[in-house]
Amino acid sequence: MQRAIRLKLTPSPAQAVSLKETSRLFTEAFNQFVRLGWDAGVSNATKLHYLAYYAVRESLPTLNSNLINTARAKAAEAIKSAFALRVQGRTVGRPMSGACPPRYNLHTYKVDWESQTVRMSLVGERQTIRFAVPAYCAHYAGYPVDTADLINRDGVWWLHVVVTVPAPVVEPTDEVIGVDLGLAQPAVTSNNRFLGKRVWKDVEGRLFFLKRKLQRKGTKSAKRHLRKVRGKQARFRRDCDHVLAKQIVQAAEPGATIVLENLTDIRKRSKIRKHTKTSRRVHSWSFAQVKGFVEYKAEERGCTVVAVDPRHTSQTCSCCGHVARNNRRSRGRFVCRVCGFELHADLNAARNIAAKYHASVARRDAGGLSVNQPIVPTSTPLALE
């Protein structure tokens, strides 16, 4: 399995200048590839290479050829994504970047874990730069490396390195944990655990109203403050999702199966009225980010993550199986109209999610089709927290 860790670079003043110039030239190469590919309607990386490589190479002779190739690969990804959005009917302009992080491969950098130095291809020549390993990912130091992205954040240079770590040898168990993700209660598991903090919703609300106030003001200082608030909100949400995903995985024993709801296109399927508080929360809900975090954290624990159809999980009685919309008397109270079974609504939904997985496995073993689909890991490793 792969993990992405952040190495803090400590370059000399001269090396910092080379890093900045390399980043600038890489961004220029990326934008040139995007411009040429966009005008020609080309998003395939190989076709883009034949179309634009020599023109970009001629205009940026001091940039390493391997870095030009990785810029071309990034540009192809950006163009392909923009074309896909345009097919969906969305108005999308040509992708452009003001600071595209240079991507290094095994031909352009080499990490020495013992001396804590990295030798990188920069403008003009290769240079050796010292780095520090954060304590939270020190146990990954020494493993083989793959690609790396060079990032400048607030004047500090970071190298986001992908390392290949052996997967844990864990025997699968029969334990199945259903997880109900929500807005008021971040997550509830079928083994009676209520995860996350309700105060997260209050913090999100305060940040939303602060952004609305700054948007109405519209001055230059308000716009500067608005950019800071947006960054703060994104970091806060990412941290909350990391905490929630870790709690979900720790609620299951090693080798267990974690069952989530397949919430793809939930915003399109939602019948909530527009321009309401609930609608705003649904459209800002980062459930896909939570799912991605659960995936890679579960992989390290030896757990399997699958998804099931979420329909009627909140309306079905986990005791007798009766389905009715009015079974849910309020947001947090579930009372079955047939058998009188009463339980917290989210806990009842979590048990139904686990039951759906058991039913799908039974149908599969009987020769039928399974309704659940394993969640495929993302192609780009996520930074650890």
Short description:
Helix content is 42%, strand content 19%. The protein has helices spanning 13-40, 45-59, 65-87, 199-217, 220-250, 266-269, 277-283, 287-301, 345-365; strands spanning 2-9, 103-104, 109-112, 117-121, 126-132, 145-153, 156-164, 176-181, 187-189, 193-195, 257-261, 304-308, 333-335, 342-344, 373-374.
Structural description of this entry:
The protein folds into two domains: 1-166, no CATH class; 176-194 and 235-374, Nucleotidyltransferase, domain 5 (2-Layer Sandwich), CATH 3.30.420. The protein has helices at residues 13-40, 45-59, 65-87, 199-217, 220-250, 266-269, 277-283, 287-301, 345-365, and strands spanning 2-9, 103-104, 109-112, 117-121, 126-132, 145-153, 156-164, 176-181, 187-189, 193-195, 257-261, 304-308, 333-335, 342-344, 373-374. It is globular. The protein has 385 residues and is α+β, with helices and mostly antiparallel strands. The longest helix is centred in the middle third of the chain and has 31 residues, at 220-250. β13 and β14 form a beta hairpin. The chain is 42% helix and 19% strand. It is built from nine helices and 15 strands. Residues 369-385 have low confidence and may be disordered. The strands form three sheets. The chain has a seven-stranded antiparallel sheet. The chain has a six-stranded mixed sheet with strand order 10-9-8-11-12-15, with helices on both faces.
